[in-house]
Amino acid sequence: MAVPKRRISSSRQGMRRSHHAIKPKQIQYCKNCDQPVIGHRMCAACGHYKGREIMPLDQKEE
Fold this sequence. Notes:
The chain has 62 residues and is of the alpha+beta class. The chain is 11% helix and 16% strand. The chain is built from one helix and four strands; from the N terminus they run αββββ.
């Protein structure tokens, strides 16, 4: 079984964990109504996605 020969310093441990931080969600804005939208999601305000109408206004779920 592999066992470390020497203690890993806290600096080296921190460098290894430097990519473990939680990154904030990137917010984009709808091209149709300029409302904030999470990426790769349909706009909840107008029902558009990538410039196309996915869910018409009369069929939207409230």
